[in-house]
């Protein structure tokens, strides 16, 4: 998968590099695209990640904020649109060695926000990618009232609001039904 290739060494934090709290601003300039569920989006602005890590007894609490701009395509008319992302994220990182001490119920309760790590490093890459993906709307629109494309000829109905195709394609299975409806309208 494409997103697995996205890397940035500044998103890998050595836990031994700080005592209790670490605050860091990371600017990611080397990511050009990110794969979304519906398309590959171009990243138009450097990704600004502000992150705070706080060590606890057996876990590290991470709070962060991401700002960037991506290029999407309108779901109706397919024109490129710019979408500004300004989104927060949080996660709890716990050493995998503590996983065995949690009951099954505790593991299920914290499943959404608990990430296990091995060794003395935490990689924030997946949280950054996940935050960008979740910030993008499922159905991006250039404008709320976008009319889209004509289903017959593909012309942009925003630019040609008076457009109507000359041909009317009717499913052959409904030809008889159409004749009945036309007869009823004429009566």
TrEMBL record:
Alphabetical list of InterPro entries matching this protein: YceD
Protein's name according to its UniProt entry: DUF177 domain-containing protein
Origin species: Petrotoga mobilis (strain DSM 10674 / SJ95)
């Amino acid at each position: 998968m494409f997103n697995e290739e996205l890397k940035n060494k500044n998103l890998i934090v050595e836990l031994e590099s700080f005592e209790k709290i670490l605050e860091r601003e990371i600017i990611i300039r080397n990511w050009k695209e990110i794969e979304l569920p519906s398309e590959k989006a171009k990243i138009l602005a450097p990704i600004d990640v502000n992150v705070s890590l706080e060590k606890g007894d057996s876990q590290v609490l991470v709070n962060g904020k991401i700002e960037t701009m991506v290029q999407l395509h309108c779901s109706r008319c397919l024109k490129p649109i710019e979408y500004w992302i300004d989104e927060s994220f949080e996660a709890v990182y716990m050493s995998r060695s503590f996983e065995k001490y949690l009951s099954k119920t505790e593991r299920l309760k914290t499943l959404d926000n608990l990430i296990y790590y091995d060794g003395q490093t935490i990689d924030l890459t997946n949280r950054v990618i996940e935050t960008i993906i979740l910030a993008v709307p499922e159905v991006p629109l250039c404008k709320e009232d976008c009319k889209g494309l004509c289903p017959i000829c593909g012309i942009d109905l925003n630019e040609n609001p008076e457009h109507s195709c000359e041909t009317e394609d009717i499913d052959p299975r409904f030809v008889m039904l159409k004749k009945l409806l036309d007869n009823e309208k004429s009566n």
